[in-house]
Structure formats: structure tokens, C-alpha cells
Design goal:
Elements (H helix, E strand, L loop, with lengths): L7 H23 L9 H29 L4 H7 L14 H10 L13 H17 L5 H17 L6 H4 L2 H14 L8
Helix pairs in contact: 1-2, 1-6, 4-5, 6-8
């Protein structure tokens, strides 16, 4: 099987889907802010699942193309990482419950024996809780948030809204991102 570049219509569709997913991710971040206390549960779940579904659609479009062009089922399943697939309809699994217990400083669930997925998730939750107590944000995470918020503000032409709901240091960076994304005015002679 000869490798070729992605067909242009598929490439454009993937770009559109990724853009939609990023917008949904920005809304997930937006609804975590304190001024959204009345809707955060509903809206973060809506937007997180919208983002996941959108990225799933992108993966499935690529998978359909790969299968159509002769990729073996085994290779396709390997690339799709099916062992990581979890059905949301089943609700949170033991890994999520263990991670939450670690985040909230609770005891490890009884079923979390050392070396199991649940115990690894519990320790991961503990690490995330410890990181949350640190006064300085991870620069990479801060940059990502600023980029996502700045992009959204620029697309909505509402850069001033950044100051209304973001912590000041994130708002400053997001504003800088939005300013860079501003379309330059063409000079008239």
C-alpha cells in the first residue's frame, strides 16, 4: 500500500472538526469559572462530550478513509487504540472513581490494589490535587488556556469579556493571544 497525502476534502473536514472541538474545549474551560456556579455541571458535561464526539467523528472519518484505501483491520484497530475506548453510557468506571478519590483527598477505593489501573488513577488524582495546591500554574497549561480563550475571544470579537471571568494572569495572556490574531489593517495610500 502506497502512502499518499490526505485528500483535500478530508483534510478540510478534519480541520473543521478540530476547530469545533477546540471551541467546545474552550467552553469547558469557560464553564469552570466561578461566575458559572449555577450551570457548571450541566455545561461542562455537555461541552466535554461534544468535544469528544467531534474528535471521535474526525477519527472515524480518517479510519473510514484508511479502511477504504486498504489498511488492514488489525492495523486500523491498533491505530484507533481500541483498548482505551470506554463507553460513556456505562458511566464512570473504577479508574474515574479512584482518580476522583485521589483528587478530593479521600481514601483509596477498596478495589484499588497496588499495581492496578485503579491504583494508578488514584495516585494520578493525588498528583493532580497536589499540583492544584501549588501557587504557580504550569506554564504549558497556562499557555494552552490563554491560546484557547484568546482564540475564542477573537472569533467572537469579544476580547473585553476575558477580563470578566478569567484570573488576571490568564486574561492578560489571552488578550495578548487575541491581539496577535487580529487581522492587520491594509495601508491605503
Amino acid at each position: 500500500m502506497e502512502d499518499t497525502q490526505m485528500p483535500e476534502p478530508l483534510r478540510r473536514s478534519i480541520h473543521q472538526l478540530v476547530s469545533e472541538a477546540v471551541q467546545n474545549c474552550q467552553e469547558v474551560l469557560r464553564y469552570t469559572e466561578p461566575d458559572q456556579a449555577h450551570t457548571w455541571k450541566r455545561m461542562t458535561l455537555y461541552r466535554a462530550t461534544d468535544a469528544a464526539d467531534t474528535m471521535n467523528m474526525a477519527a472515524m472519518l480518517i479510519a473510514a478513509y484508511c479502511q477504504r484505501t486498504g489498511m488492514s483491520r488489525d492495523t486500523l484497530e491498533s491505530y484507533l487504540q481500541l483498548v482505551q475506548q470506554q463507553d460513556r453510557a456505562k458511566g464512570p468506571g473504577e479508574g474515574e472513581w479512584a482518580h476522583l478519590a485521589g483528587l478530593l483527598g479521600e481514601d483509596a477505593p477498596v478495589a484499588s490494589e497496588a499495581g492496578t489501573w485503579a491504583s494508578m488513577q488514584f495516585r494520578s488524582g493525588q498528583r493532580h490535587a497536589e499540583e492544584a495546591r501549588q501557587p504557580d500554574d504550569d506554564p504549558q497549561k497556562l499557555f494552552t488556556e490563554a491560546c484557547v480563550h484568546g482564540l475564542r475571544a477573537r472569533l467572537c470579537e469579544d476580547v473585553d469579556s476575558l477580563d470578566g471571568y478569567l484570573p488576571p494572569h490568564v486574561a492578560r495572556l489571552a488578550r495578548k493571544v487575541a491581539e496577535v490574531l487580529e487581522e492587520p489593517q491594509t495601508a491605503t495610500a
